[in-house]
Write a structure and sequence with these properties.
Blueprint (H helix, E strand, L loop, with lengths): L8 E6 L5 E7 L2 E6 L4 E6 L4 E7 L3 E8 L2 E8 L4 E8 L3 E2 L5 E2 L8 E3 L4 E5 L4 E5 L5 E6 L3 E8 L2 E8 L5 E7 L9 E6 L3 E6 L3 E6 L4 E6 L3
Antiparallel strand pairs: 1-21, 2-3, 3-4, 4-5, 6-7, 7-8, 8-9, 8-10, 11-12, 12-13, 13-14, 15-16, 16-17, 17-18, 19-20, 20-21
């Protein structure tokens, strides 16, 4: 079996804030959240300048663009309980009840155009949620998950382990299959966190190095 290639990096930039964690591409801009500062930043990806930043009501673990809003997974309280919150650019977090993740556990988010998908790190799975936040499907990944994003109906997933220095892979699956086949595409040579797509390239965070990395879509 041929060895997996390493992701083809397009650029690697210093994050404007430490420990970049949540990451989303929204209306031509890059949004990210700092784990340690608990703040959310809106950035111009060309000039790499921060256009706006706000305090989050918790640790911003993950985010995804959905129409005109951005959904965040936030960790709150001493136990870092996980909730979903809707953020409206220019206005802030919506004045509505927060949505508890199943068993208060959840991290990365993606959206297929109709439904929100939430991954659980320790359970090695991605959950499809309906409009009432019920679990309507479970996709077993078989490894820790550090990000996922939909591109042209296919789900791209960062999966592996952070143990022993880390071993991360970019994989792809077709959620339209009853039992999706997980195909590994490339190795990620650092501890990656979050995954988003700008219409041409993929983006992730190298949190420990305070860097944001753009890389090419594998063939």
């Amino acid at each position: 079996m041929a060895e997996l290639p390493v992701i083809n990096e397009v650029e690697r930039r210093v994050s404007p804030a430490p420990t970049p964690q949540a990451l989303a591409w929204h209306n031509g801009e890059l949004w990210f959240g700092s784990r340690d500062l608990g703040r959310i930043y809106r950035m111009d990806p060309k000039t790499w300048k921060v256009l706006d930043d706000v305090e989050a009501p918790g640790i911003p673990w993950a985010s995804v663009s959905v129409g005109e809003v951005i959904w965040f997974t936030l960790g709150e309280g001493a136990d870092d309980d996980r909730y979903l919150r809707r953020y409206v650019p220019g206005k802030g977090f919506a004045d509505e009840p927060r949505i508890p993740c199943p068993d208060f556990t959840g991290s990365y988010l993606s959206h297929d155009g109709s439904n929100l998908y939430l991954s659980q790190w320790y359970n090695h799975r991605i959950l499809k949620l309906d409009s009432e936040w019920n679990i309507v499907r479970e996709i077993a990944i078989g490894a820790e998950i550090s990000g996922h994003v939909f591109v042209d109906g296919l789900l791209y997933v960062l999966c592996g382990t952070e143990q022993n220095g880390g071993d991360w892979r970019l994989a792809r699956l077709d959620p339209r299959e009853e039992k999706p086949t997980i195909r590994e595409l490339a190795r990620v040579p650092f501890q990656c966190r979050s995954l988003t797509y700008d219409g041409q390239h993929l983006w992730t965070n190298y949190r420990e190095a305070d860097q944001i990395v753009c890389f090419a879509m594998p063939q």
